[in-house]
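call fold(seq) -> tokens
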Amino acid sequence: MGFVGTDGLGMETVHAFRAEMPVANGWAYFDHAAVGPLPKRAADAVRRWAMDASVDGDVRWPEWSAAASRLRRAASELFHCSKQQIALIPNTTFGINIIANGFPWRAGDSLVVLANEFPSNLLPWMELQKRGVEVRRVPVDADGTPCLHRIRAAIDGSTRLVSVSWVGYATGYRLPLGELCDVVHQVGAQLFVDAIQGLGVFPLDTSEIPIDYAAADGHKWMLGPEGAGFLYIRESNLERIAPVMVGWGSIESSHEFNAEGAVYKRAASRYEGGSANHVGLIGLEASLKLLLEFGCHRPDNMVARTVLQNAAAIRDVLRRLGAVFPWSVPRDVPSRQQEPSADSSSGIISFQFSGKDPFEVRRRLLDAGVVLSVRHGALRVATHAYNNQDDIERLEKGLVKICES
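ret:
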């Protein structure tokens, strides 16, 4: 499936992607930062699994296991790493907790995390304070932007780990992971990345950007079912993280079901523990294969370009309607609203209308066939590459009616 044209996805490819998304038949769907809709091929794969499980039971288990193995290979393509560095996990929170609880902490160690993190990338680290680890929450700028200089200033000789979200779930700000890696590694610390709001759109080549750990559920931008995702652990760190989540699936010769003299797998799959969520993994395998066909793992890929172009078009619409972008500039200086750079922007845009209840706006947009979220008192659009001009116009028409009422 090739690309056509130079700006974003070519029209033929946009149509091909959109044809894979049944949600586009009924909705202008801009909620991918919450829960993405399933592509047709993923829904078909889930239906086949359900029928097979109903008719044949575990006779089909080897096929399900093979699909999980294919997903691990697809994830290794996504991360540009070996499949030994990929664990299949139920969600981002699970992956964060594996690292938080398996890392070899010592009393007096410190950890650095951004102050405006999503709770799942904050609470597991905060719990480490009970073990004598100092958790340093780095404040962000008034516009929600993380500052690399502040992160660097928070790191000292006691710092073992820095944890960040690649893309802010409310602000949409995308961190420069390459620069951040340099900052963190220069002082001998390691970097954990919550990648859930970036993977599926923006490439993350771990052979070029040497992050140490990353976790992401597949149900947002990767368009998979909830409850299936990835934990990436750089191979050199596999022995560093204690196998705190273990079970029969963690050991070599796992199907012998013998714990005596057990040897843990020499791969990140040692952290998976027990039975897999095969239906979720099968759905995610189908979704991820689709995105890889569109090149989401390649540098300067067309999926990312189209997402950014859609986001820019939506910002133009919102500006014309008088929207305020609360995390684009300091809230008290509305005249200084600026366009984010392509390097730091994403498909996420938060906005407000003066005097309008965001929950009521969302409700009325749903009535108009437009789906988005509310986060921290602001409406949040999260556009993907299959969204098109028709979707954007539908959003604009819905907002015009609301603003005029």
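Residues 1-7, 329-337 have pLDDT under 50 and may be disordered.
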